[in-house]
Design brief:
The complex is a heterodimer of chains A (about 80) and B (about 375).
Chain A lengths: L1 H18 L5 H23 L6 H20 L3
Chain B lengths: L7 H13 L2 H4 L1 H8 L3 H25 L5 H9 L1 H34 L5 H18 L1 H24 L19 H15 L1 H5 L15 H26 L9 H7 L2 E2 L3 E2 L2 H30 L8 H14 L4 H38 L1
Antiparallel strand pairs in B: 1-2
Helix pairs in contact in B: 1-8, 1-11, 1-13, 3-4, 3-9, 4-9, 4-11, 4-15, 5-6, 5-15, 6-7, 6-13, 6-14, 6-15, 7-13, 7-14, 8-13, 9-15, 11-12
The chains are: A mainly alpha (about 80), B mainly alpha (about 375).
InterPro entries (chain B): Spore_GerAB
Keywords (chain B): Germination, Membrane, Transmembrane, Transmembrane helix, Transport
Membrane topology (chain B): Multi-pass membrane protein
Chain lengths: ~80, ~375
């Protein structure tokens, strides 16, 4: 419960931080753009679901190469 | 782009705390697991690779001394390529920052404060670091100066006090399984901490240029000191703990537990915790500043606007990316090097080569 309260107050603080951008529309757009993945992760965290994340994304892209290199290095 | 300016010495201090900060605590475990008894040789070789990365970064800095890495890429490859290179690099930096935060949190939840929830550590360090990053490079340059001395003092104390446990024979056999484990250690060291040098390229331009002087020698010297410090921590861990060292995630913590001088100075691992917080705090502050710098320069907007939202993203990433410390360990020593190589090192090499060709053509 305390955890959710703290995270809730953080979201409010971020809203105030967003408001300080005032007329800077370009910055506002970028701020919102970053907030989308933040919202996604917040949902994943609060719901306790194991959703795809950045680490898994990198695993898909470079995982096979990393695996090939490390398994070669670990060969005696 | 940020506009504050700092002196050569302050930049050298920032570089030192940035490179040594969290690595002082986190590198021994993965390095010893990969290279076993020859981990200290692997550390020195990885440091040598670090010199290559720093050389590339400084070559680019000398071509465009008043620009950060984002603008250096823009001036060399054009706008579209800049987006293609910097957005993945931005994600890599987020990933590494989250890894460092998680590393600190898991140290506390596994060895010192087991009942406290992980997110408390992540939250507190990110709030403090984001406020520091928001204060700007000049404040960090002044503040980290003192903190670096404290960190180095703790480091010296931690290595000198357990002197009675050191057995030089524990270093032998040097490389019982051949050269491959050493290469494995270099592979680990390349991803963390030495590829982080590239991220530092975002802020090197903030140094106050003086005619006839260069930042290059300061940074090379800083990197050399970093290599010596990290190698010493591995050597002392090996000599102090023997074969036990390969089973420990934080060998320096165990080494601190062994300190016993006249039954007065005992169990000083809490000081190790202080060093860990200090190092991680300084590194994360600089990384948040660098992330904001990359984003604001990429989209050509005013700097310092995004530090808090980036901190929130890092917090949530660190809380959701891994289910346990084993996953973090696998990611850090297995995936991080390949990720930084493909999204950081290769583009850097390309940019340096093209920048050199361009400058030769215009000369």
């Amino acid at each position: 419960m305390i955890e959710k309260l703290i995270i809730g107050s953080l979201v409010v603080l971020l809203y105030f931080d967003y408001q300080t951008l005032k007329q800077d529309n370009k910055s506002k757009k970028i701020y919102l753009m970053i907030s989308i993945p933040a919202g996604y992760m917040l949902y994943a965290y609060l719901s306790g679901r194991n959703l795809p994340n950045l680490d898994e994304g990198f695993q898909i892209i470079v995982g096979p190469i990393a695996e090939a290199i490390t398994s070669w290095l670990q060969l005696k | 782009m940020h506009t504050g300016k700092i002196s050569y010495w302050q930049m050298a201090v920032l570089f030192q705390v940035y490179m040594t900060g969290s690595a002082l605590i986190n590198i021994q475990g993965p390095m010893l697991a990969a290279a076993q008894n020859s981990a200290w040789i692997a550390m020195l070789l990885a440091n040598l690779v670090g010199f290559v990365i720093l050389y590339l970064v400084l070559t680019l800095h000398n071509e465009y001394p008043d620009q950060c890495y984002v603008n250096q890429v823009r001036l060399t490859l054009g706008n579209v390529m800049t987006y293609l290179i910097i957005i993945p690099l931005f994600l890599v930096m987020l990933y590494i920052t989250a890894n460092i935060v998680y590393g600190m949190g898991q140290y506390f939840t596994t060895s010192m404060m087991r009942e406290t929830p992980l997110f408390i550590f992540h939250l507190l360090i990110l709030i403090t670091s984001s406020l520091t990053a928001k204060a700007g490079i000049e404040v960090m340059g002044r503040m980290f100066h003192l903190l670096m001395y404290i960190l180095l003092f703790i480091f010296i104390i931690m290595l000198i006090l357990p002197y009675n446990t050191y057995e030089i024979t524990n270093l032998l056999p040097l490389a019982p399984q051949g050269f491959k484990p050493i290469l494995h250690g270099v592979y680990v060291g390349f991803g963390f901490p030495y590829m982080d040098i590239l991220f530092f390229a975002m802020i090197i331009y903030l140094v106050k240029q003086k005619p006839g002087q260069s930042i290059n020698k300061w940074l090379y010297l800083g990197l050399l000191i970093n290599g010596i410090v990290l190698t010493l921590t591995i050597l002392c861990s090996l000599m102090g703990l023997g074969p036990l060292v390969f089973l420990k995630k934080f060998p320096l913590h165990v080494l601190a537990q062994l300190i016993s001088i006249g039954e007065i100075i005992e169990r000083i691992e809490a000081i190790f915790g202080i060093a860990l917080i200090l190092g991680t705090y300084m590194k994360i502050s600089l990384l948040l500043f660098i992330l904001d710098q990359a984003l604001s320069t990429l989209f050509k907007v005013k700097a310092s606007h995004f530090i808090y939202i980036i901190s929130a993203v890092v917090l949530l990433l660190s809380l959701t990316m891994y289910k346990n410390e084993i996953e973090l360990g696998e990611s850090g020593s297995f995936l991080q090097t390949s990720v930084t190589f493909f999204f950081g090192f290769l583009p850097l090499l390309l940019v340096v080569i093209i920048a050199k060709v361009k400058s030769k053509k215009t000369a």
